[in-house]
């Protein structure tokens, strides 16, 4: 039998709580020191989706690590904070990524913490650009949507997190418990490659959502409706000349970066 | 700005077919010295435009061998912008300018009864604007070129020659790192590279001649006098209050002759 994909598989409640409690400890400590440290990844979706967060456990979505976003100028403060909380940094990662990423490991709990400075840089770049102050303790909902939708090789855990987000939050043009579609559409209008991946993945999520028996029929319908609205908003955003030119070339030229996994 | 675009356009269309590879389209642009080609279908009807800006995509997206191969296979029909943006031949220059600004186009196909007659571009409208200059042309400042071509002292001579050719300028003003004028390189100065030290080994500072300056409010007669006295073909126009600042412009013998040839000048009365 095939091994479950990373982030998928049964996880008991005690183990889930161990991750959630550690996140709270780190977030509180960062807040006390005035550091901008915002949660992303599966735990962010759990924390920002109180109504639909239970879908993660129901659909076999497991926590594997803790991810944060911060600004480059906070790297020193974050490093000192994590050391005080008992973590050891893998300094090589920070050097190799030219200060773009830090990985911390707790020798005691064996929990693993990733910090992404300035931007998320996988298949596409999602810059933080002063956006981290728009929400707490997670990155803003628009960036949470983009975090998942920018992955070219999207997998089931990403689909589940996106479905939760779209069920829980309306689309709009602010960040207050709302997915700021102006931000999503603006980034997609600036980069045809990001547009290509995001719209492709939104389409995939819409199709897959209809196949999950864990979702009620009206929930499946709501996800599809949200995706149609999101695609319409992205489509309506004016596109600059460079975008239009890149669109004419289309898929003939690769539009994304291959992701190298940092272990 | 009521002149009809029919009188301002470039008549006729330079065309290529839909299946023309973009590398070949680039050659056509250079050969005909135009910035865009009309792309035609099998019946010879123009269906889109391919501009030099569109062709930049070739370099922009050729990040690796695979992408380069993909871009080399691209054709004019795949890269062109559609639909064709047209304007009636009887429309005015103002209407053409308004459409270009509003819709972000750099050129429009001029048509009459749906039949293409030519192309009107931003450059054509700029030339028209330039022809609407005020009548007062008595001083150096009225006649000089305000936009000037400059390079640094260490610029290789080969680059100076290439830029002069591409931009059709006949001289380049040489500045130091702080923007202070240091000299002028003209075609005459470059002749030395053909019968002496090769251009590849020289810099602008090594071939330039000293700049002869003049005040912007000086009369054309004074400028002509200065050119003849020193046997110079061009004068660097400087601000007398700040002679070390970036110059205000360049006045060439051609500018003065151009003024003499202007309808309405004292020479044409």
Would you mind describing this structure in some detail?
The complex is a heterodimer of chains A (263) and B (269). Chain A is of the alpha/beta class and 263 residues long. Helix content of chain A is 48%, strand content 12%. Chain A has helices at residues 13-32, 42-48, 54-58, 75-84, 91-96, 141-149, 156-168, 181-190, 192-209, 217-236, 241-249, and strands spanning 38-40, 66-70, 88-89, 101-105, 112-117, 119-121, 125-127, 171-172, 179-180. In chain A, a hairpin with a 6-residue loop joins strand 4 and strand 5. The mean pLDDT of chain A is 93. With 269 residues, chain B is α/β, with parallel strands linked by helices. Chain B has helices spanning 22-32, 52-61, 65-73, 76-79, 93-103, 122-131, 140-143, 157-167, 187-195, 204-207, 220-230, 253-261; strands at residues 10-11, 15-17, 36-40, 46-51, 86-88, 107-112, 115-121, 150-152, 171-175, 181-186, 213-214, 234-237, 249-252. In chain B, the strands form 4 sheets. Chain B has a 4-stranded mixed β-sheet. Chain B has a 3-stranded mixed β-sheet with strand order 2-3-4. A 3-stranded mixed β-sheet of chain B has the order 8-9-10. In chain B, strand 9 (171-175) and strand 10 form a beta hairpin. The longest helix of chain B is centred in the N-terminal third of the chain and has 11 residues, at 22-32. In chain B, 23% of the residues are buried. The model of chain B has no long low-confidence stretch (mean pLDDT 88). Chains A and B meet through helix 11 of A and helix 2 and helix 3 of B.
